[in-house]
Amino acid sequence: MGAMSVAVFFHAHPDDEALLTSGTMAKAAAAGHRVVLVVATDGALGLTSSEYGDPADLARTRLAEVQASADALGVARVVNLGYADSGLGPVTVRDGSGRTRFVDADVDVAAGELADILREENAGVFTSYDAAGGYGHPDHVQVHRVGARAAELTGIPVLEATVPRDLLVKGINLAAKFYRFPPEFDIDSYRRAYSAKEQITHRIDVRRQIPAKRASMRAHASQAAADGGADRTLAAFLRIPRPIYDLVFGREWYVDPRRSGPVRHDIFEDTTQEVRR
């Protein structure tokens, strides 16, 4: 992975890192790089079972879960930008905290906060999300906007964490063999989500990091639970037996909007730029 560097991974909610970038994070940390995880929100409006209490209770649980995930991955620092979770429901939904929802945040203000962290850490690698926000969650789309602006402010190129959508649908179909998705689950939406295979610029082999990745997923117990004894997508993924799990989750993908050409296998390949102060 080249000379030691700092990698900052920017995510919308606790548990997003487990699904999209945890293998890369663990691989970077194991190679001696400093890994920093920034979450925009505490995930207070995440879907879960009623046992986790009201949004304030869930927020405390999820911040503890993301720290446990970070510990499993070797992450050196976790930062919460402190915005309110925007949720997936109507735009009037609030978590009751009175804070600005991330989807409503001024992009320049939020990007400035993120840029301060990038400068403080002298980051050489920085990741956010693709323009679709993956599956379209409002906070994920905002991560893309804020991340792109922070890249402009600092001069640090951004890698957009994503998934080839054809492989994602294949993984969901595999999960369906071991888990019955709820009626409202819309697989067609995933056929339009994330990125086309030809857009991928970085494919990272994380098969050796599978134990850490599974530990990261397990850390987010609240996001694997639902009322009535049911469980959710995260739990379904953890039910996939190995080696099928390794096949589905053994690689992670990024899009560099500046580049095309041969797919790269190291996110630290271009870390010579100077961070703008």
TrEMBL record:
Its EC top class is hydrolase
> Pfam families attached here?
PIG-L
Keyword Lipid metabolism listed: no
**EC nos:** 3.5.1.-
Swiss-Prot/TrEMBL keywords: Hydrolase, Zinc
The family database entries (InterPro entries) matched by this protein are listed as: GlcNAc_PI_deacetylase-related, LmbE-like_dom_sf
> Any idea which GO molecular function terms this record carries?
hydrolase activity
- Entry protein name: PIG-L deacetylase family protein
